[in-house]
Specification:
Blueprint lengths: L2 H7 L36 H14 L3 E5 L2 H10 L6 E5 L4 H9 L6 E5 L4 H7 L4 E7 L11 H10 L3 E5 L4 H4 L9 E5 L13 E5 L4 H13 L5 H11 L2 H20 L4 E5 L9 H7 L6 E6 L3 H9 L5 E2 L9 E4 L14 E5 L5 H15 L1
Parallel strand pairs: 2-3, 2-4, 4-5, 5-6, 10-11
Antiparallel strand pairs: 1-7, 6-7, 8-9, 9-12, 11-12
The structure holds pyridoxal-5'-phosphate (PLP).
Pyridoxal-5'-phosphate binds next to helix 3 and helix 4.
Length: about 375
């Protein structure tokens, strides 16, 4: 099956006697004891099983585990590591995941945040207790591109588990398992939901091995699982994911070029621009560049806020991946992070008509500068 067919059929499991075309939502938390029946929804549920099946097939994995948020999915990986492990993580990394490692795991797990685009720095950071190499590509919010193949080969030489947060890419544009990762993670709150109305996370594993069993134990026993309703809605959203991603990405490319040509813009961070440092790597490991971009204006935070305030179709809000365009001055969220300049604006490009989006940006630039 090709991705569009997997997306439509891969999670649609119908066992109902009435033969509906769409899988019903099974809200029951418990099931009558009988051979082959499910037991209890924290452990297993038909809608969660469907979501996990379609995601596992889309990523080319052996199994998947769905969680109630992206951070809960990342947390399951960290929790499954032996106490005292060392992790190598990206310097530019979703700040909430970074905070999870720095606060909840302080004193329990050692972490070094490294520029993963420099492989010699990764090699230097490996210690005797290093267990996990956590990749995030494209990264949030600076859109750094890490070479999954080469990091996976460094990781494998050193017996590390390689996990990749592919939230910005989705399985439609990047197949991290085929590139060498053992695990792929998504915040399904973003493109997989696509409508800014569900919180979720998912892990897909290349193999069903001992480490994966530990992760499944965290899922089932710690219990940060999504509701059947959310699983149903995510499975529904996935049906249109390939088409939404193409529309998102086509708009983002045009907007990146538009911003790049603006004299008031200092720099555009978008891996689909040939001037981007990671363009060649992105071209090699992704089938398209996605729809997240950041840019620096030639101005200060007040001018960035003023530009954002004049937009009609871009909501000034955090998060990403919904059909509607969002924009924010990133340091409002990532305060006190010296790697994020005050005038850095991050944009999640939606699937509105691109001419409308560009006209909106154009009027906001004219009114600000
Ligand atoms: N990974 C990335 C790249 C993200 O952007 C986010 C959230 O913004 C997360 C993980 C965490 O996901 P959630 O907010 O669903 O916990």
């Amino acid at each position: 099956m090709k991705i569009e067919t997997i997306a439509v059929h891969g999670g649609n499991v119908v066992t109902d006697q009435l033969k509906p075309v769409i899988q019903p939502i099974t809200l029951s938390t418990t099931f009558k004891h009988q051979e082959d029946s499910m037991l209890y929804t924290r452990l297993e549920n038909p809608n969660r099983k469907s979501l996990e099946a379609v995601m596992s097939t889309l990523e080319g994995g052996a199994d998947a585990a769905a969680f109630s948020s992206g951070n809960a999915a990342g947390n399951a990986v960290f929790q499954a590591l032996p106490a005292g492990s060392h992790i190598i993580a990206p310097d530019d990394m979703y700040h909430g995941m970074k905070m999870l490692l720095q606060t909840v795991y302080a004193g329990k797990i050692e972490v070094d945040f490294i520029d993963l685009t420099q492989s010699e720095k990764v090699i230097q950071a490996i210690k005797s207790n290093t267990k996990l190499l956590w990749i995030e590509t494209p990264s949030n919010p600076l859109l750094k591109i890490s070479d999954i193949r080469s990091l996976a080969s460094i990781g494998k030489e050193n017996n590390l588990i390689i996990a990749c947060d592919s939230t910005f890419a989705t399985p439609i544009f990047q197949q991290a398992l085929a590139l060498g990762a053992h695990l792929v993670m998504h915040s399904s709150t973003k493109y997989i939901s696509g409508h800014s109305d569900i919180l979720g996370g998912i892990l897909v594993s290349k193999e069903k091995n001992v480490f994966w069993e530990s992760i499944k134990n965290v899922q089932k026993l710690a219990g940060a699982v999504p509701s059947p309703m959310d699983c149903y809605l995510l499975t529904r959203s996935i049906k249109t994911l390939p088409y939404r991603m193409r529309a998102h990405s086509a708009n983002a490319k045009k907007i990146a070029v538009f911003l790049d040509g603006k004299q008031e813009v200092e720099k555009v961070f978008y891996p689909g621009l040939p001037s981007h440092k990671g363009f060649e790597t992105a071209r090699n490991q992704m089938s398209d560049f996605g729809a997240m971009l950041s840019f620096l204006i030639k101005g200060n935070a007040d001018e960035a806020d003023s530009l954002i305030g004049k937009l009609k179709y871009f909501s000034d809000a955090t998060s990403l991946g919904g059909v509607e365009s969002l924009i924010e001055r990133r340091s409002k969220v990532q305060a006190n992070d010296s790697s994020i300049p005050d005038q850095l604006i991050r944009m999640s490009v939606g699937i509105e008509n691109c001419d409308d989006l560009i006209a909106d940006l154009d009027q906001a630039f004219k009114a600000t500068f």
